[in-house]
Amino acid sequence: MEEYGTGLYFEDLPVGKKFRTAGRTITEADLVAFINCTGLTGEMFTNLEFLKSGSAIKGRPVPGNFSYCLCEGLGVQGPTRNTGLALLEVELKFLKPVFVGDTIHLESEVVEARPSKSRKNAGLVRFRSSIVKQDGTVAVVYTPLRLMKRRNPET
Description:
By secondary structure, the protein is an alpha+beta fold. It has helices at about 30-40, 45, 50-55, 65-75; strands at about 20, 25, 85-95, 105-115, 120-135, 140-150.
């Protein structure tokens, strides 16, 4: 029986497979909650007067790692829901700033997929993921390697 509410299994993720998550608009409340939770309370994120006169970035930027964390959450709500077993490594490149009011989503492509040698119930999948803003601008690119659950561990 097909299960709904579960993400993609290793068998569903051949090299070349592409997917996109839902989008999410970043609010001022999101920014405040994230910086207070993480301690990233530098002037760029907390001082509007600094942004007007002392910042190289104009607008209300959010930390780059917030965009990454938000899109990881979007992935866990969809493609890797209950099938992602572990995040093993990730390389991040921050290309463009993301601001309060931007709507972002994640676009991913499988670039590597192989069975795990040590776990029959899992496979290793590397993705090339892009965090994309509402205007099509790619803000962040990252390549996570994930341990993904297999649907049929005996095959």
